[in-house]
Amino acid sequence: MKVAFLGLGIMGRPMAANLAKKGHEVAVWNRTPKQVEGARAAATPAEAAQGAEVVWMCVSDTVAVEQVLFGENGVEDSLREGMIVVDSSTISPARTLEFAKRVRGHGADYVDAPITGSKIGAEAGQLIFMVGGAEPTLERIRPLFEAMGKAVKRMGDTGKGQATKISMNLMIALIFEGFAEALTLATKQGVHAENFVELIGMTMVKSGVVDYKAPFVLKNDYSPNFPLRLMYKDIRLMLEAAKDARVKLPALRTVEEIYEVASEEGLDDLDYAATLTLLQKWAGLEVKGGVPA
Fold first, then answer.
1. Angle at 260 between CA 273 and CA 293, to 5 degrees
2. C-alpha pair distances (Å), 236 with each of 105, 144, 173, 256
3. Which has the closest alpha carbon to 154: 137, 174, 169?
């Protein structure tokens, strides 16, 4: 298929590369020009989308999606009957509905397909897509999903993919915060961090989030698999959606405060797991070789 892939960040670049490896004709665009082996680089989103069957986006936030679609030299200039626009960014569910309506006004269709699987999953083509959109449209682009991921779950109509993703990320944020606080308390009391993590894996509190993050934090490695600034952005999306739905999220409100301080401390471009360093700092723990002492 002819695909325009827009956004070549931590997730987008390997996704586009996997499409090209599977034989799809891929044109790519990124705000800061980047190359993808087997793909043609375009100067603007409109140029990338020209003649494409599918436009696939993976950018940082709601504003970026709006700009890519409808800004100067945006995709809207190249939309035509029968095209499909797919968004794998994590953005506002409410704004997703607005964008879809505008895209459909040009005779194209719109699918929200945010992802989970982190950087490693993107590179290995093992992402999981949570999708909002019409079933016939999803079937048309199934080969693209299969080139980049291991599973596709339709969550309902347009917007439901984004609603699912921010709810999933809510769990991730809270689970990691619980782990970070527990690890800090245990180590402050003299429990060896690696022993504590090993025990977690034997019990009912075992978690995929902890399994993935613990090896990094024990090495004091906060290189960004999921940058803190993006999780902070997602937390604000969660709270915005909760306000619209009249849902109270008291635990998330507390976690938001941690992220606010982390951002002020200059941790935005580290992995979101770096919130642990704040707890360690406040507890007076010194970290040596990734293990608090």
1. 45
2. 29, 30, 12, 8
3. 137
Which class in CATH covers the domain with range 163-292? mainly alpha
CA distances from 82 to 72, 172, 193 (A): 23, 37, 55
Q: Is 248 a catalytic residue?
A: no
Per-residue model confidence as pLDDT tens digits over 118-156: 999 999 999 999 999 999 999 999 999 999 999 999 999
Choice among 160, 165, 213, 233 that is catalytic: 165
Domain boundaries, the chain: 2-157, 163-292
φ and ψ of 116, to 5 deg: -140, 150
pLDDT of residue 223 exceeding 90:
yes
pLDDT over threshold 60, residue 289: no
270 to 46, 154, 176, 222, 225: CA distances (angstroms): 32, 32, 15, 6, 8
Q: DSSP assignment, residue 44?
A: S
Summarised one tens digit per residue, pLDDT across range 193-203 is 999 999 999 99
**2-157: in CATH 3.40.50.720:** yes
Three-class SS state of 98: helix
